[in-house]
Amino acid sequence: MKHLVMLGAGHAHVHMLSTLAAQPLAGVQITLVAPYPRQLYSGMVPGFVAGHYALEDCVINLAPWLAHSGVQWLQRSAVALDADARTVTLDDGSLMAFDLLSVNTGAVQNREKIEQMMPGAREHALFVRPIEAFGALWPQVVALAGTKALRVAVLGGGAAGIELACAVAHRLPSSSVTLVAGDALVGANYSDKVQARIKRALKKRHISVIQEQATGISVAEVALGNGGQLACDVPLMAIGAQAPSWLQGSALALDKQGFIAVDEFQRSTSHPAVFAAGDVSSRVDRPVARSGVYAVRAGVPLAANLRAVLTGEEPNPYIPQTKTLNLLACGEKYAIASWGGWSAEGKWVWWLKDRIDRGFIQKYSGPAQP
Ligand SMILES: Cc1cc2nc3c(=O)[nH]c(=O)nc-3n(C[C@H](O)[C@H](O)[C@H](O)COP(=O)(O)OP(=O)(O)OC[C@H]3O[C@@H](n4cnc5c(N)ncnc54)[C@H](O)[C@@H]3O)c2cc1C
Questions:
Q1: Any atom of ligand 1 within 6 Å of the Cβ of 295
Q2: How does pLDDT run across 266-294, given as a tens digit for each residue?
C-alpha cells in the first residue's frame, strides 16, 4: 500500500481533504501531519482583531473531513525532511516514511532571523504567526487595553501590517497605533492609486506611520534605524513570510529564499515524489505572490495531481491566474478593493469581503449530508 503524507493543513490541503471525503482513494494510506485540529483562516484575522468575528467564526475544523476521508491525523509538526530517503522527522523525534509527500505548511516568521534584525523581538514582540498562538494572545491585549491606554506599534508595512494596524485602531480606540514600515513605502506592492487610498485610510484612523527600520525591541520601546526610540507597550510583529528552516538540508531544490521550488504540476523540481502548494512553495515557471488567494486556488490542481500520480496517471499543468481581487480590511466595516489597475473602497467592499470569507468557511464546514 502506498503512503501519502500530507504536511500541514493549509488551504490547499483543506481542499484535498474535502475531495478525499467526497471520493476516498482506495489502496492508499494517507496521513495528515498537522499541529492543530483546525485551520485558522488568516483572511478573517484582521476582522477578529477588529472585533467583528469571534475566533470560532474564522476556523475550519478538520474533524468532519477526517471522519469521511479515511485520512489519519497525526497531531505533530515536521521538523526535518530527507527527500532522498523519503522520510519526515516529526517533533517527537519519530521518523515517518512516505511514497508521496505533499507540503502545505505555509510561511513562517523566522524568530532567529527576526531576532538578528531586531534584538529583543523574540522576548517582547507579539508575533502574528503561528496564527493560532496569536489568536489565543490577542484577547489578552484587549483585556489589558481595558485597564489603560496602550501604545501599539505594528511592525511591517505590507498588507497584513496595514490591516492589523487599522483593526487595532478600531478595536482599541483609546490606544495609539503606529505603523513602523521600514524603508519600503507602505503597501509597496500595490499601485500608486491604492497606496494613496491606504495613506488616506491610515490618516483617517489616526495611525502614525514611521518610515524607519525597527532595529531592536525592549520592554517599553522599539528602537529605530535613525537612532530614535518609539515608546511602545505592544509591538505587534507583522513582518516576514519566511521559508521554514527545516527545509534546509532536505535535499529538495529550494528557491533563493528557501521555499520549495515547484513546477507547473506543483511538483518539486528536484524530487518527483514531493508536491508543494501555497506559501511554502515557489513556482519556478511563473512566480506568484504569497497570498491566501493563491494558496486556495492551488488546492484544486494539487488534489487532482496527487490523485493522478497515485492512480498511475499523468498530472496536469496548472496555470495560476495573473491578477487576483485584493481586499484590504480597514478596521471598521470598510475595505479597499483592487484588481490590476482598478481600485475602489467603501462599506460595500467590506460587505463583499465578509461574504467571500464567510462563504469560504461555510464551504469547508463539512461534507454535504446525503
Ligand atoms: C494577518 C494576516 C492577514 C492576511 N490576510 C490575507 C488576505 O486577506 N488575503 C490573502 O490572500 N492573504 C492574506 N494573508 C496571507 C495568508 O495568510 C497566507 O498567504 C496564507 O495563509 C498561505 O496559506 P497556506 O495554505 O500556504 O499556509 P497557511 O495558511 O499558513 O497554513 C499552513 C498550515 O500548516 C501548519 N503547519 C505549519 N508548520 C507545520 C509543520 N512544520 N508541520 C505540520 N504542519 C505545519 C500550520 O499550523 C497551518 O495550519 C494574511 C496573512 C496574515 C498574517
A1: yes
A2: 999 999 999 999 999 999 999 998 999 99
CATH fold of the domain at 124-239+326-357: FAD/NAD(P)-binding domain (3.50.50)
Which residue shows C-alpha cell 494510506?
Answer: 29
Residue type, 165: A
Average pLDDT over residues 334-341: 96
List, in sequence order, every residue forming a beta bridge with 335; answer none if it has no partner. Answer: 329, 346
Closest CA to 118 of 182, 65, 50, 204: 182
Given pLDDT bands bounded at 50, 70 and 90, which one contains residue 370?
Answer: low
pLDDT band at 73 (very low <50, low <70, confident <90, very high): very high
Query: Can you read off the three cell numbers belonging to residue 201?
Result: 485610510
Whole-number Å distance between alpha carbons of 334 and 349: 7
DSSP strand pairing (87-90 vs 95-97): antiparallel
Beta-carbon contacts of residue 115 (< 8 Å; ≥ 6 apart):
121, 122
Residue 30 Cα, ligand 1 centroid: separation in angstroms?
Answer: 22
For residue 154, the CA-to-ligand 1 centroid distance in Å is 19
The CATH homologous superfamily for domain 2-35+75-108+242-324 is: FAD/NAD(P)-binding domain (3.50.50.60)
C-beta of 302 in contact with ligand 1 (< 6 A) = no
Grouping H, G, I as helix, E, B as strand and the rest as coil, residue 48 is helix
Domain ranges of the chain: 2-35+75-108+242-324, 124-239+326-357
Interval 215-226: pLDDT, tens: 999 999 999 999
Find out whether 242 and 257 touch, Cβ atoms under 8 Å: yes
